[in-house]
Amino acid sequence: MTFKHAKLLLLAALLLSLLISLFAGRINSYVLFVLYAIGINIILAVSLNLINGYTGQFSLGHAGFMAVGGYTAAVITNQFGDLNAFAAGALFFGALLAGGLLAAVTGLLVGLPTLRLRGDYLAIVTLGFGEIIRVIFQNMNAVGAARGLSVMHGYTNFFWTFGTAAVTVYVVTALVHSTYGRGFIAVRDDEVAAEAMGINTTKYKVTAFVVGAFFAGMAGGLYAHSIQFLTPSGFNFMQSIAIVVMVILGGMGNTPGVIIAAILLTLLPEGLRWLAGIPSLPGIAKAYPFAWVGNTRMIIYSLLLIGLMLTRPQGLFTWKRRPILPA
Amino acid sequence: MTSPSENPLLQTERVTIRFGGLTAVSGLDLQIGRNELIGLIGPNGAGKTTVFNLITGVYQPTEGTILFDGQSITGCKAYRITARGIARTFQNIRLFSSLTVFDNVRTAFHLHLQGDVRHALWRGRAFWAEEKAIATQVLELLEIFHLEKFRAAPAKSLSYGDQRRLEIVRALAARPRLLLLDEPAAGMNSSEKTDLMRLIQFIKGKFQISVLLVEHDMQVVMGICERIAVLDYGVKIAEGRPDEVRRNPKVIEAYLGEERTHDA
After folding, report:
1. What ipTM does this complex have?
2. Do A180 and B58 touch (CB under 8 A)?
3. pTM of the model
4. Which CATH class for the B1-85+176-264 domain?
């Protein structure tokens, strides 16, 4: 595909998610909650893929940007009482944007000094930054410190979640599939050669960082208004790692693969939970035959990850992609 | 070809760079005329690649100034110097290995983009028109160098000689006025070398550019350069026409060692 009908596809995705959100009342609320988690993880993984995958800057601080966006959006919507549907939508959109923008500014502030570092050094600095953000929220009484922050409105719905996810995918793909955007991959492949070809590598890296942080902030806002309770520990180092795993598993710089990985890795723990909850199976006398899965769920999840990393280090979903030439 | 002394394209004035206690290049005065093909030679470790890195902004000189087209580019960042009109290839090939042949060349075109990020995001008429124009130019360039049949192949899958040529194409895509070639003949057999010599002269004529060639291979250097500068231990020890340089005793000494007379 030449990516020529991208805008139409984006519009179709937005309309579809709006349509589904109108019928969301008929969907079981647990299923909806898992669906929102999938959408949020797609946003996080695809935006991190721009930084880690396409631009090759290993960042471990994505949860930090998510926290900035989540807390910002929650504090804004908490100022308001019950509103009619239209006003609530406008408020939520504004709050999400504000969260994204503040996360982007944070990304700029963190990116400018740190992006001259490479590889492991950058990973360590971004990891440290993510922890600093978490500790700041943990000690900020205005947002409940370690007690957490209740989010009054459950504004997150199918439209906002998957609409934002569609916009994220569009922006990242549109950026990369252009003469301008090939620069991101050039920076990843060889920084010295990229500079020699007239590419301002610092600017490209900071751009990737800021765009990635913006969408992570949006995802944070959606998360806050879905789970309706924020704790600083929800944005810890493990959350950053979980997003990195989605990117690596999907294949660095492979957006469709990363989307699939985000879906699978969100469903996997839920699937294991469901398995543990099966009351009986024909032919097996014991009740809850898979109850052991419930206790060892996270161990199984970790073992699967280790196994995948050992057998498919290049990512689960690497396929030959046709180069995209303008027709 | 105009005489290099009047209105040179590139001029280095007493350029020196020290790494700790080591003076890699010392007080180098070098002029490159417009549409001139000049060679830079010297034994291993003489500082040839360091001179390249100084001109292209990878290193900043400790002392001295570098003028390009009459304006100082001393201390400029590498990407700005490329934008001014100096492009290079690398001694150890540095292509964008995961990108296709087409995309490697296309990346260098980003210097001439009219639109910016917003164009790429909005993907309107102007964006597609520009992308199409760039694609045409990229394919034209690839055709000149007989690489168009590999356009969809990843750069790393090309043969060694093709990778070297692709690096030259990529550098040309930046539309330089001065092209720096760092050992383009390395690892080539003699028929490939002959092709390369023809290619370099062709490029110089077709694109009306100056070329600075660092090369070990005397067959290539002596064969095509109009003027040659010789470096030894970071100092320019000779400069002149190929036949002059070939006979220069200092050059012979630098390459073969001092001549000893054994009178007892």
Report:
1. 0.88
2. no
3. 0.89
4. alpha beta
